[in-house]
């Protein structure tokens, strides 16, 4: 069994990003990322902190915009409009989940698609469906694909089962897996799927993105499967200073011995997500200069 070390693979991806940032600097452009956070959700603040820190490590300019819990839809739309118009900002993301008075979908639609480094704008969703590389691909599923590729997992013709159908993970994950570069045969399962464990046992590659701690047990997993655990769940743990521990959607201890390869939580998909965000921000900066990817 191989543990797919997301932290290590992300470090390699970030080293490539650092070189790309330096190349852009030499051409007089510093990639810029704006991260907007509304309210006090502690997990969201941790994620935003990691994104801002990674920007600093790479030489990407970042602007962290913290807005109070009671921010109105109009105020947030004005902030996003300002960032759309700001030439020093190439990427914009609004950290999810916002407070309940905010209509997240309207905010996403207002973000300039050329700055939508999360890949959630309908234009970018459409480009993903059409396999148009000029768009932005959501960071978490993109990170899962990167992990599979770096680990040398054969995907062509493989049976892949994704559990979850969100716009952030499940749906784009399924699209990427079925795409021409990857060529898996994809099943998407969700809360209404019948005989979920049996469906999952067909998987050569199983990707749970559910948000339920240790939901996927050994009876969901075929001997020799590859398991990419997207879930990040906080469980209370009084023995830790933070008061909680992170677990995935997979019951790791019982599932790992059956697997050919598996990602841990933490240290699997999480670090990959941030690395892909950095890559998307660099891509946005390059596009703003009229340079295609890799140019
Ligand atoms: P959502 O809540 O938006 O979606 C969860 C999906 O899981 C839904 O499609 C839901 O089905 C399905 N589901 C829920 N319960 C069951 C069940 N009992 N059986 C089968 N399917 C079920 O979550 P996200 O997609 O945003 O996130 C999923 C997980 O991934 C979370 O733990 C989140 O924290 C984590 N995550 C991790 C990231 C990372 O960087 N590693 C980034 C983003 C998310 P239905 O549609 O029928 O309700």
Account of the protein in words:
The chain has helices at about 5-25, 40-60, 75-85, 105-110, 120-130, 140-150, 170-180, 195-200, 250-255, 270-290, and strands at about 1-5, 30-40, 60-65, 90-95, 160-165, 185-190, 205-210, 225, 235, 245, 260. It is α/β, with parallel strands linked by helices and about 300 residues long. The strands form three sheets. It has a six-stranded parallel β-sheet with strand order 1-11-8-7-5-6. Helix 2 links the parallel strand 2 and strand 3. Helix 6 packs across helix 7 (about 170-180). The termini are far apart. The model has no long low-confidence stretch (mean pLDDT about 95). Bound molecules: NADPH dihydro-nicotinamide-adenine-dinucleotide phosphate. NADPH dihydro-nicotinamide-adenine-dinucleotide phosphate binds near residues 165, 169, 189, 209 and 212. NADPH dihydro-nicotinamide-adenine-dinucleotide phosphate (NDP) binds near residues 190, 209 and 230.
């Amino acid at each position: 069994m191989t543990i797919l070390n997301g932290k290590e693979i992300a470090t390699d991806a970030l080293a490539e990003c650092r070189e790309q940032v330096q190349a852009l600097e030499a051409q007089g452009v510093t990639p810029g990322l704006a991260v907007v956070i509304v309210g006090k959700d502690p997990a969201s603040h941790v994620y935003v902190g990691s994104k801002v820190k990674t920007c600093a490590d790479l030489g990407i300019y970042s602007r962290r915009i913290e807005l109070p819990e009671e921010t109105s839809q109009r105020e947030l739309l004005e902030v996003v409009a300002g960032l759309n118009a700001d030439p020093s900002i190439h990427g914009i993301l609004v950290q999810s989940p916002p407070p309940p008075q905010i209509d997240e979908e309207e905010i996403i639609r207002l973000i300039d698609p050329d700055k939508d480094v999360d890949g959630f704008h309908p234009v970018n969703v459409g480009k993903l469906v059409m396999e148009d590389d000029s768009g932005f691909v959501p960071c978490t599923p993109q990170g899962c694909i990167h992990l599979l590729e770096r680990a040398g997992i054969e995907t062509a013709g493989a049976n892949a089962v994704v559990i979850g159908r969100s716009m952030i993970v499940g749906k784009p994950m399924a699209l990427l897996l079925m795409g021409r570069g990857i060529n898996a045969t994809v099943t998407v399962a969700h809360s209404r799927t019948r005989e979920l464990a049996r469906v999952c046992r067909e998987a050569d590659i199983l990707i749970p993105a559910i948000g339920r701690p240790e939901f996927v047990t050994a009876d969901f997993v075929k001997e020799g499967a590859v398991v990419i655990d997207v879930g990040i769940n906080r469980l209370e743990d009084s023995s830790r200073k933070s008061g909680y521990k992170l677990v995935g959607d997979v019951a790791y201890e019982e599932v790992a011995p059956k697997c050919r390869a598996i990602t841990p939580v933490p240290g699997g998909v999480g670090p990959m997500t941030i690395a892909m965000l950095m890559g998307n921000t660099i891509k946005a900066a390059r596009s703003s200069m009229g340079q295609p990817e890799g140019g």
